[in-house]
Amino acid sequence: PETPPEIRLQLQERLSQAGLAGLYAELQQKDAEIAAKLNPNDKTRIIRALEVMAATGIKLSEWYKKPLIQKLPEAHFVTVKIMPELEVIAERCCLRLDKMVNELGVLSEIERLLTRGVDENMPAMKALGVPELSLFIKGQATLEEALALAKLHTRQYAKRQRTWLKNKMSADVVLENVYTGQKDYLQQIFKVINL
After folding, report:
1. For residues 50 and 24, what is the distance between their CA atoms, to the nearest angstrom?
2. CA distance 194 to 129
3. How far, in Å, CA of 52 to CA of 46, rounded?
4. If we measure between CA atoms, which residue out of 190, 128, 123 comes closest to residue 159?
5. How far, in Å, CA of 171 to CA of 161, rounded?
6. Tens-place pLDDT, residues 148-191
7. Contact assessment for residue 34 and residue 61, using Cβ atoms and an 8 Å cutoff
């Protein structure tokens, strides 16, 4: 359920005072079932569990037991899967990383995270390219080495995503090239939804 932003702010304040261990201990007392499923260092989920409880008076573990209500029972969705060749994806991954480094200031952004001492286990520090480019900023690799490693890991991640999509997700329409405004692509989709 949605929760009022002021509850989240109050919990953020309590986090700075009691620490994450204090909030986790509170969650263990109020909703032991959900606390047992969470990592004691998962700040986002611990705060979410406490804020849902504060806003609704219902434990998050109880929310999970409720049947899902379809909000749009009349809705019909058309699934479109875009599956370009792996070489195209790899090239686009490399171009994107080059643009991030050369034009979008990703190195200064990562440097700010490192300067602030953001924990390496935080999601921002695990994002694609961040660990590799951090090596350059720390002086542990040249920019070329760090960028090559970031490109390798990004391509590997994209390949895993593509494999998952190919094997696990069915689609009404499968497009085999990147969409760049091709009218025949739209015609294929419109045909499926009878437009």
Report:
1. 9
2. 42
3. 10
4. 128
5. 15
6. 999 999 999 999 999 998 888 888 888 888 777 777 877 877 88
7. yes
Average pLDDT score over residue span 105-117:
94
| Ramachandran sector of residue 139 (left: φ over 0; alpha: ψ -120 to 50; beta: rest) | left
Confidence of residue 54 (pLDDT cuts 50, 70, 90): very high
Q: Residue 73's pLDDT is what?
A: 65
Q: Quick check: 46 and 20 in contact, CB under 8 A?
A: yes
Structure tokens at 88: 């195209």
Q: How far is residue 11's CA from residue 51's CA, in Å, rounded to a whole number? A: 7
Could you give the CA distance from residue 102 to residue 21 in angstroms, rounded to a whole number?
A: 41
Residue of 176 and 76 predicted with greater confidence: 176
C-alpha closest to that of 26 among 42, 50, 8, 10: 50
**Interstrand relation of 80-82 and 173-175 (parallel, antiparallel or unpaired):** parallel
Structure tokens at 87: 């070489």
- Cβ distance 3 to 55 under 8 Å? yes
**Residues 165 and 133: beta-carbon distance below 8 Å:** no
Instruction: Point out which residues pair with 82 in neighbouring strands.
Output: 175
